[in-house]
Amino acid sequence: MPGNGDLVHLEKEASDLAEALIAKYGASAQNVAAKALAEAVTANDLAEYKKWLAVRHHVLEKGDTARYTRRLSDKLVWAIEQALELDLPQLATVLGVIATEAKKKEEENSADIRNPAGKRPPADGGVNMDTPEYTRRLSDKLIWALEQSLDQGLLDIATMLKPLYEVASEGDAARAATYRERANF
Q: Are 124 and 72 in contact (CB under 8 A)?
């Protein structure tokens, strides 16, 4: 169990790193931190993903407050972040693997983004893509990612996301029922 000094040190390190990222990358600092978070989750490095989760929170507090969720991999990192907040590290790890795969597909398709002859929407969601409204439910984040993967023809990613969405929606329903029960007392 980390001591109070360790937590203070982690917060200070995360805050300093967030400020450095904002200074260096500006509005893209959130994406840099998201990439590092996804890599830490994929590597199953608990200390690193706790650090990068704290860095992302500081970047969101100090920098641009609008979450950038146009890319599929960004939506998945957002879901990873919430899975960690809900103390679901196994789900976060699986989502990390899927986010890495989605990122790889986005990089492979990056040459096609500007190609107007392409039939699929670009990997970044397109210029006029509506940013989804912020939600606290993990299942909403996963359904947006699932829909986008289907829209882009990424059936292998959609296949991996579907059972995770089903589990998350059951968990969201159970948490809502518990909340309603507590509210009645």
A: no
